[in-house]
Each structure stands twice: as structure tokens, then as C-alpha cells.
């Protein structure tokens, strides 16, 4: 194992007497994060937000033996110690017992005892002292709040008072320390079911290293409070008041409440009254939901996997447990931290559950809506209902039964909205009439009002009463036919797009109207003499604001004290390369600027393709490109390692890097329109007043994000595109190799679907699902309206057409008639339409599979559309004039001779 240290402390007020980072901050990191299995491989901001730590994660870490002033995390099996005090790494003697020192705020300290934690399934005991710490009852984590106290405290002196007990595999929920800092006094009640996941407090009869502690060991004089002492006591008091009244916890409540009232009085604080506690019927955060008991995170998305957060736009915060995230075949687990940044769920992710008893034959015999018959989903008798809980309007969708397995025991029931849902909106899902389904005991109790011993039922009765009432108003009865229902809230626009918008606005202000500083690195004249279509191939570098910890794969966003991305303080600027092709035609007249978005894990050099070169020379465009870092050629190995490594939380790193990639794309156009169009040597060949975007495949997909964000481009063409990736991946042959890796690492098909849903939750921050609805109408602040031409190849093997339709409905375009079938939710438009539109080209392939499978028949038409002369003419006219014209013979864009299906097919 490598050596690790806390790596940055910029403010002098967070340095302790020992010269390192103040241990009052380290306590927070240690107790909230290091006591969990996740040591984190991402740089996070904790307490003071520019204190960053970056350490490797190790399996099954708990707080363990140390000596002053360090803090150690110990592996239960190997007995390894990681001292974050001075970075020293060593093996501790006995991992079963030891002493944990928390060096406090120069004058205060607390000591904890780790007693008898050798075996993985045994119970671990932490003894902590109140002047520095309190217990977060929801997650069995220790949370630093105190700063006062003139003397150290030790369990040996008999002054330790609170014992936290929890099983070794249930250390604590993996929450973001920065979020916890903002929510330091916001406690939540855990409602995990079963003894193995329960958490409780006890003050009496616990033997720690030979000493028996009891409530009598509390001298109130030791409760020395800091400046926010009343808040601290009231926070703990509130948590105790809201404890479940299980037999196990009654004694804890009886013991703790008098102590806390006395502590509040001693500090001059007003204690809470019973009237101030949250109502018993408020929904509680669950680790797993017994509504769908056979798989932990089903049904998904789900209010049960959130907590109240008065500081968020939605009023909620995603709160996933570390133990709920799917583990790899090898037992590797992922941190829940990246997902717990969100104030709601994805607007375009799949809605997942499992219906026990449902078979493939039963699904096929049902009347659920398919992707070919979406209108059925809003019929009065539809077996599935997706309801906007605020308006009572049914939302169009379709349903799938995961085609990756035939075994009902691991088959996922998938509901997909027909377009992106609204941000910051509550939705209700209902399922009924499905054959042979065994309704869970928990849902039966909620629906019928019967008794239940399930800990997740009682606190949710009032919530579900409201859900059933809302459903009844929409024509969905509270009868035995109703087999499952639940609700969720989507993330806010600011939560999804806020980071990217902040980076855009700040960077454009930094580079000004001329754009980034650039340097021409090389110039090649007439690089393809055989064709003679390109006059100069130019490579250059532009210097842009760097928001990542490093420019390479795995780089992480750097955040400021407000939680917004900020320039890397150690390297605020970085150079990224670009390529520009100036056509021969530009010698006669300055060429319009055309920015190219490259394909999957590709590179800017794709602009060198012969059909692009000939198009640019014929129609006089200077085409240029940059690598879309995060999904570029040099990211492929890193993405593969994330998929296969069992640490799926690292996908957040991929999305972090995509923020920089999108920023680079926006700034490259600003540079071309500004500095390069006025360049003393090259400006004469470039027309900075005409600037457009053309993306293909991945470039067409992320082109939806680009066109929502750009302030320099008004019109763009999105070729063979679709969204969201959660919908695309199962249906794309491009991802066969990645799915092979994923299925090897996560053999349970339900895990695969769950991970795709979790990926979408993060991906919304960069991919078009978080942006497409802002392209035409409802534009972002200080952003003009845009026009887009979307072009799809029917039967596409790589980007399925249902995803193109999803994207078109979300953007709000029309369907220009090219002789193809109507598309649900899109109005028709005639040839010559002035506006945004979707156009389809038919290459004679058979219909796509109805389920979540790719089209594999005949030849893939993915790369054929852009080479058609009718498509080239259409591209040019739309970019220059904004009209969508059909240049196909007789207006029918059918090319069956290009199918490759063979004679007679």
C-alpha cells in the first residue's frame, strides 16, 4: 500500500498546534468518512472546503489503534494502519483492540476505544466523549461539532459517555463530508430492517477493554460547548426525539433525553419540545426498500432513498447507503458519495423494479405500452402509470422486461419516460394488472392499511395515503389490482447544470471576446495533394482555464468554498490542442467556421475524413475540432477500468472530466470567432461572423449539450444522435465490449441495469438529458435561442432510433416528412420548414427489436447518411439559411440498395 497524507491546507485558521491540519477537522473526516469502507480516491473538500485529501480506498476499514496525534484507519483482516496525522504507514499489532486519539482544537482531546472487532460479522464498539463529538443516529457515524474544553478526556478517566454499536459491515452511510459540513446539525432516522443493519445507542453495560461504562460516567461539567453549542445540543436532542420507539431504543431514549435536557439547561439553551419533532408519518430514509424486497435499490428512483434537506432547491437530497450500491463479483464496493450530491433523481433515467412472479410470457401477454405504441401508456387501462404528482397528468412512457436474462429471478421491469421529465418535480409510479405477480408484504400493508412489522411501513403510511389519493384522482384505484406504487422527485436544474454554467460564464469572462490565447504549432500546406481540397492543415494549442486537478484521464473537478468548480489554484491555465482545416475555396472567399464534434471515444483528427474534406471545399467551410476530453480517445482505457474495476463511483471522475471537455469545445469556438478570425496571417481565410456546429454520433449526442450552452453558435446539426445514454447503451453494438466487462464484474443482470441508472444520475451533468430542453425554449441565462437539425439513420446499430425520438421530443422539434412513419409526440412539418427538426433516412433494414437490444441485422447505416449527396445539400442549406429542405428524389429518403441485407431480404 502506498503512503498517503492530507495534501492541502491553505487557510492558516485550520492549522493545529502540531503544525498539521487541525484535528477538529480530521475528526470530521475520520468519523464520517474513514470509519466507512470508503477512503475515497477523489479529492474532496471537508469542513474548510479547500482542505483536500486524496487517499486510496481499502476494503472494510474502520477506526482503529493509534497514538497521539495521528488518526488511523485499520483494515479488520490485515491489521494495516494508515496514519493520516503524519502520513506514516505501518502495521498495527492487534486489530481487535486499540485506542483512538482525536487531537482537538489545541486544548481539547477525546479518546475512543475500539473493542473486540476481529471478525467481520462481530459488533464494533466506539466509546467517544461528548465535548468533541456527537452521534449521528441515522447513520451510526460520529460527527464532530465541539471546539471547546480545557482538558483532555479519556475512557480511562471514566468520562466517556456514549457508546455506538453497529455491525462491522454497516459502519456508516457514505455521505459527502462537504455536504455533511453544511448539514452538521441535520440528523436523520435510519429505518434499515433486520438485525444485521440496525443501529442503536446504549449507555450501560458495555465492556470496553476491561472497563464497564454506564450512564453514571457522565459528569455534565464535561459538556463544554462551543459557539454553536445550543444548535449542537438541539441537533442531538432532535435526533433522539425522532428515534424509532423500538424496544431496543426505548432505554436509550429514557437515558439520553434527561441528560440532554440537563445539558441544554446548563448551557442556557432552550430544549426542544415534543411538538417540535418531525411528524411520525414523515418518510424515512431507507437503505433498501421492502416494497420490492428481492433487490436492494428497487424500486428506483425512490423517495425512500432521499432525506429532507431544507437547503436544497427540491427540499430533498439523495442519500444512498454504501451497502446498497452493487458490489462486484470480487466483493469490491463503491462509495455512495457521488450520487449523494444530487437533490433529486435523473429526469431521463430508467424507472426500475422487480415484480416477483412475473415471467417473460406473462409480460408479453400483458397490455403494457411498447416503444412502438407509447400512446397506450396514457390509456385509462394501462397497466403502468407515470403521473406528475403536481399536475395529475399522466406522462407518456413505455415498458421493457430486461432482455439480458430469461430468468424471472433476476429480471428487471423497466419503465422509460418518452422524453425527459421536468426538473424539480415529484412523480408517482403505479403498476397493476400484471399476471401472476406476488405483491410484497410491505406494499400490501400500505395499500390495505393492515398491520406490519416492517420498519419501513409505519413511517410511510401518511405518505402512501397521499400517493393513493393522488392516484385515485387519476383513475387508479386502491384495489387488489394495484401491485406496486411509489414516488420520487427529480433533480433541480441548478443541481444538474449549475457546475457547467458556472464554468462557462466564468471562463468566457476570463478569455473575453477574442477567446483563449493560442499558438500555432504546425502548418502543412496541401496535405492531401491527390484531392487538393484542403489548402492548409493547422495544429495549434489554446490556453484555457483549468478546472481539473490534472489534464489527464481521472482528473477531478476543483471546487471553491461555495461548492462551485474553480480554477486549479496550482495550475489555473492549461493548454489543449486543436486542429483546423482551411479549404482551397477559402482562398477565393473567407470560409464559414464549422466546429466538429467527434464520435465515440474518438479524436479531433476525424475531421480529416475524405467526405468532410470534400464537403468543406465544395461548400466553403473551415472545419476544426478539439478532443472532447472525458469521452475522447485517451479516456478509453480509464473508462474501461471504471467499468471492470468494481469501483463504479469512479464514473463521477469521467463526468468531472467531461465538464472540462465541454468547456474546451465552447472556448474553441470563441477563439475561432475572435482571435483566429482576426489573425494577421490566417484571419483573411476565416469568416468569424458565420459559425456553426456539426456533431456526429457521440458528437451529435453531446452536441445537444453544446447547443444548449453555446453563446457563439445559433445553428447546429446533430447527426445520428440520441439520448439519454441510459437508454442508448443496451441498444448499441458499440458498447458490446464494455457490457462484456460489466457483466463479468457484475454477473447479476439487475446490477447492470442499476449501474446504468446510477451512471445516468451522474451523466446528467454533462450529457444532453440535462440540457436538451433548453436549446430552443426555456434557454439558460444569457443564452440565445438555437436551431438544430437532427438526422437519424433508421436501423442504426450504434445509436438506436428510439433514443433519437426521445431527444427530439425533449428538445421540441418537428418531424420533417421524408416518407417515413410518424413519430409519437412530434408534429409533422413540410419541406422547407424554417426551424428545428428531425429528419429520418431509411436504408432498408428490418424493424428494430422492441426490447433493450441493439439492431444487428444487415449493414450498419450509422456512417452512411452523412455521405449522401442529398444529406450534404441539406446540411449546407440549414447551416446557412436555417431551413430544413428535403433533397431526396421524389421527397422519399429511402435507400434500400444500401441495406446490405442481401437479395430477397
Morphology call: globular
Low-confidence stretches: 1-229, 242-250, 270-282
Spatial separation of the terminal alpha carbons: 60 Å
Percent helix range = 10-25%
The average pLDDT score comes to 76
Please, could you describe this protein's structure?
With 905 residues, the chain is an alpha+beta fold. It is 22% helix and 21% strand. It contains 18 helices and 37 strands. The strands form ten sheets. It has an eleven-stranded mixed beta sheet, sandwiched between helices. The protein has a five-stranded antiparallel beta sheet with strand order 8-9-10-13-14. A hairpin with a 5-residue loop joins strand 6 (80-83) and strand 7 (89-91). Helix 3 packs antiparallel against helix 4 (247-266) and helix 8 (493-511) packs parallel to helix 11. It is globular. The N and C termini lie far apart (60 Å).
